[in-house]
Write a structure and sequence with these properties.
- The protein is 41% helix and 27% strand.
- It has 188 residues and is of the alpha+beta class.
- The strands form 2 sheets. A 6-stranded antiparallel sheet has the order 3-2-1-6-5-4, with helices on both faces.
- The longest helix has 23 residues.
Length: 188
């Protein structure tokens, strides 16, 4: 958990948060010291998110993911912070508090999945034979390489995000839908 007093410019957090930021349990810091731990590419967006949350018109919502580098362990950690600013009767923020979650593991898994999907997409697009991927029981075209497009005499715009049987209705008459239904249902 964290608590920020924008008037005194003081930032405090629980033991876990302080450990992530490379602080001792009893350390108190100003917001600027805390910002130094945030990786340079994320620092400005965090500052903007804090400033936005401290504006009354924003509703006080604070929700951002960013990376930090622990100054002691040099380990990079991805954090997701959510909080809410509190305002006085003059609409001036006097407190911003919330929670921070370590989402490093989820971020690594997501990046690996994205890389794997990109590798598959590149492999399909560069394959010397006609390959395409369909989505769902309507067989919505997700990807088709140049060989597929040439085979069907269609453009990407004619096929993508549309059912293959909508754009090439003769495939259904040829029994291709029944074959694809069997593959989808049985995996064979």
């Amino acid at each position: 958990t964290f608590d920020y007093d924008p008037i005194a410019n003081k930032f405090s957090g629980n033991k876990r948060l302080k450990k992530w930021f490379g602080l001792n349990a009893d350390d108190e810091i100003g917001i600027n010291e805390g910002l130094k731990v945030i990786v340079e590419n994320d620092r400005e967006k965090v500052v903007q998110a804090i400033n936005r949350a401290l504006e009354y018109s924003s509703g006080g919502d604070y929700d951002i993911a960013y990376d930090i580098i622990n100054p002691k362990s040099k380990q990079e950690i991805t954090l997701h912070a959510k909080g809410k600013a509190l305002f006085d009767n003059k609409k001036v923020a006097f407190r911003l508090n919330g929670t921070v979650e370590d989402i490093t593991a989820q971020t690594i898994v997501r990046k690996k999945l994205e890389q794997s999907e990109n590798n598959l997409r590149l492999m399909i697009l560069q394959a010397p034979i006609a390959i395409s991927i369909f989505r769902g029981p309507e067989y919505i075209m997700e990807i088709a390489n140049k060989s597929s497009l040439l085979l069907w005499d269609k453009t990407e715009e004619e096929l993508y995000d549309k059912s293959i049987f909508e754009t090439i209705p003769e495939l259904e008459v040829q029994g291709i839908k029944e074959i694809l239904d069997q593959v989808r249902l049985t995996g064979k």
